[in-house]
Design brief:
Blueprint lengths: L1 H22 L28 H6 L3 H6 L14 E12 L2 E8 L4 E4 L4 E5 L7 E8 L6 E5 L6 E8 L3 E10 L2 E11 L2
Antiparallel strand pairs: 1-2, 1-3, 1-9, 3-4, 4-5, 5-6, 6-7, 7-8, 8-9
Length: about 190
Amino acid sequence: MKTFKLLKNIGLILFLGLVTTACSSSDDNKGGKGSNLLENVPKGEIVPEAQRFITLTGYDENVAVKSNSATVLNADSQKWWRMEKSGVIYWYEGKYETDVEDGDFTYYAFYPNGKLYARYTLEDTPIEYASWRWIDSSKSKIGVKTSFTEELVYEITELNSFGVTYAHIISEMGYTTVLWEQYKLGN
């Protein structure tokens, strides 16, 4: 039953990614007519650039890059993030609406090898469902790609020992949509 729920949640995430990809060919962040598109996205402390890899994954970047083997890396170091909330903010013809939902409470892990894993409980076996990478040298954006979608770029608005929040901006044909997800440390 837990495996079914996890697969269902992963399916929903993939569907959202597919819909997002189908509706978007532009991520230029200018669809809000000059307004700060991320102003209504939850924010928190963002650790300094040098600490972002270890804060997100649980591993020292220099060690992880040199030894990507699971036998060398300590599994207890891996950070698992639990989805707490997600939201959609959209604008069209001067109208603004927002919708915030409780998270699916699935656990996600950004492995140091660039893979993104999910599991329904901390006791479940992790399932690989996407890849991830830093988009920029300042480590302020993350790219996430599944085998079914093109890479989606998320801007980080919180990254610290307690939480991760990031948002994806879509601007197309007069519509601007911001999709955001908020995670809290789960392990």
